């Protein structure tokens, strides 16, 4: 697979959540040595630091030398499929993540990447194939993302699951990740719930005092809605056929 983290940048920069929520504070990029997220740190202004973690640092499945709740975000591009136990890997990646932080994972989709053959002929170190969800798969080592995420603890909130197929073309069997544009993967984003959120059984709004300008506009929106409701009581809506 070729420069999958780099390929994701244009797509991610078009989504404001990557800049304002997902990539913020101090992060770790697991398995990122060949194409590290840290190369592009200036594109995400709320990021303070990114540690690149790879095989010489330890087994990514366990992250044994990293204390719990260390990082504000954990990123991993195409590493999970190399682990002996992907679920245990995700559990430990969540362990080292601070409450309120985000885990951003990309894995290859089995139909877009492996394309019907496993063990992989494109990457012999792949131990698993992944699909968002199937009732059955041609792969004997297939993992349904949705089923795997159901096995996580109640401290997780699934924010996003996306099949990355926008640049995938109709070709004979070929590793399309060799091209400069095709991702051929699945992106999963998980938020680690705060202790307060777990206790409340939901992310509930907080009672905070907004500044005057914000209060004026929000109250005006509500007043406008009330005005419309009152007017519709007098004049039946969608009944005006006069010329424009």
UniProtKB/TrEMBL annotation:
It comes from viral metagenome. GO terms for molecular function: methyltransferase activity. It holds the Pfam family Methyltransf_23. CDD domains: AdoMet_MTases. Transmembrane segments: none annotated. One of its GO terms (biological process) is methylation. Keywords: Methyltransferase, Transferase. This is Putative methyltransferase. InterPro entries: SAM-dependent_MTases_sf (IPR029063). The keyword Methyltransferase applies. The keyword Calcium does not apply.
């Amino acid at each position: 697979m070729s420069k999958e983290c780099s390929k994701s940048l244009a797509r991610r920069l078009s989504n404001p959540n990557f800049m304002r929520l997902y990539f913020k504070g101090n992060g770790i990029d697991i398995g990122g040595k060949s194409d590290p997220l840290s190369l592009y740190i200036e594109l995400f202004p709320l990021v303070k630091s990114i540690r690149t973690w790879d095989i010489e640092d330890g087994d990514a499945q366990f992250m044994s030398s990293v204390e719990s709740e260390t990082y504000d975000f954990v990123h991993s591009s195409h590493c999970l499929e190399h682990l002996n136990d992907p679920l245990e890997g995700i559990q430990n990646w969540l362990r080292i993540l601070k409450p309120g932080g985000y885990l951003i994972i990309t894995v290859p989709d089995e139909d877009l990447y492996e394309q019907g053959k496993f063990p992989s002929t494109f990457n012999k170190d792949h131990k698993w194939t992944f699909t968002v969800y199937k009732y059955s798969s041609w792969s004997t080592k297939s993992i349904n993302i949705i089923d795997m995420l159901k096995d996580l603890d109640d401290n997780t909130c699934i924010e996003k699951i996306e099949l990355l197929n926008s640049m995938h073309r109709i070709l004979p069997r070929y590793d399309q990740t060799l091209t400069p544009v095709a991702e051929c993967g699945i992106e999963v984003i998980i938020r680690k719930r705060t202790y307060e959120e777990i206790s409340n059984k939901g992310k509930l709004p907080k009672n905070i005092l907004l500044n005057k300008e914000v209060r004026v506009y929000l109250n005006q929106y509500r007043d406008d809605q009330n005005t419309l409701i009152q007017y519709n009581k007098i004049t039946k809506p969608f009944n005006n056929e006069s010329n424009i």
